[in-house]
Amino acid sequence: MGHLDHTAFGLLTPVLSYAMAVIGAALGLRCTVRALDASGRARRNWLITAASAIGTGIWTMHFVAMLGFSVRGADIHYNVPLTVLSLLVAMLVVGAGVFCVGYGRDRVRALLIGGLSTGLGVASMHYLGMAALRLHGSVSYDPLFVALSVVIAVVAATVALWAALNIKSPVAVAIASLVMGAAVSSMHYTGMLAVSVQIAPAHGELPGATAMQFVFPLAVGLGSYLFVTSAFVALSPTESERAAYDSAEQAADAAAADSPSAAVGASGGDGTAFVAEPGRPAPARPTARDATTA
């Protein structure tokens, strides 16, 4: 039986992975809130961004935490296609849940189906990512802890989507993201408690790539994507702000249309109107001095 260490680099990987989960949750919830206030193509685009943010955040959280995972006396590699597939599964299944909430007419039903779909997507990503693990030995799981991790994932996803439907304040979204990040991290480490490894004698070189060769660069790239997208969402105006801008612009246009035009000119003191002919300047308005001279 191999000795498992989940914090090979101390608290660095748990804290950093939690931060990635919080950022992904915050961005996903904020995009979902924007989507619910939008319509048409804008709603679809916001929901796609939300799905990619939540899926990317969860995947990055998982593999940043896995950077701190080690088995005494065994090297660990990762199957590259399975690792990438786990990322795609996270985005697609989470996207199904988010779109269900975004377009569902029955809010309660959409929330339950969306929470179940998103939670199963989170759990699928986790265990598919674990299936990508390569070492000299065998990996087994405790069914009780596996079931508990899936329940945590579904509950966390349902609560997060409920927050997206019912919470509009940025402060409340931030608090919900902290809770969601803690739930996702709890799901991960509960799933890791289910893991046991039986070491076998090494025969040949391990297939796949090491964490530093593949997982770390990809996690850094996806983390950068989260930060850049967060900045974009924070700087882009909301639908209510766009409506306010449009109303202000229409009011300014109406005021400009009602004001006297320079081309038409103004009426003189005796009520005579001075109208400029095309290509010629408008006649000068008579002054008091001109009237006295006359």
- Strand tally is 6
The biggest beta sheet is recorded as: 2 strands, antiparallel
* Strand residues, percent: 5-15%
Helix content: 55-70%
Principal-axes shape call: elongated
End-to-end separation = 116 Å
**Spatial strand arrangement across the major sheet:** 1-2
Structural class: mainly alpha
* Assembly form of the protein: single chain
List segments where confidence is low: pLDDT < 50 over at least 5 consecutive residues: 262-269
Count of separate DSSP helical elements? 9
Order of helices and strands: EHHEEHHEEHHEHHH
* Overall pLDDT score: 79
**How big is the Rg?**
30 Å
Mind explaining what this structure looks like?
The chain is mainly alpha-helical and 294 residues long. Helix content is 69%, strand content 6%. It has 9 helices and 6 strands. The protein has helices at 12-37, 40-67, 80-103, 107-131, 143-166, 170-193, 211-235, 239-258, 288-293, and strands at residues 4-5, 70-71, 77-78, 133-134, 137-141, 195-199. Strands 1-2 form a two-stranded antiparallel ribbon. The chain has a two-stranded antiparallel ribbon with strand order 3-4. Strands 5-6 form a two-stranded antiparallel ribbon. The longest helix is centred in the N-terminal third of the chain and has 28 residues, at 40-67. The chain is elongated and about 90 Å long. The N and C termini lie far apart (116 Å). The relative contact order is 0.14. The model is unreliable at 262-269 (pLDDT under 50).
Labels describing this entry:
294 residues, two-stranded antiparallel ribbon
List the SSEs and their pairings:
Elements: E1 4-5, H1 12-37, H2 40-67, E2 70-71, E3 77-78, H3 80-103, H4 107-131, E4 133-134, E5 137-141, H5 143-166, H6 170-193, E6 195-199, H7 211-235, H8 239-258, H9 288-293
Antiparallel strand pairs: 1-2, 3-4, 5-6
Helix pairs in contact: 1-2, 1-5, 1-6, 1-7, 2-3, 2-4, 2-7, 3-4, 4-5, 4-6, 5-6
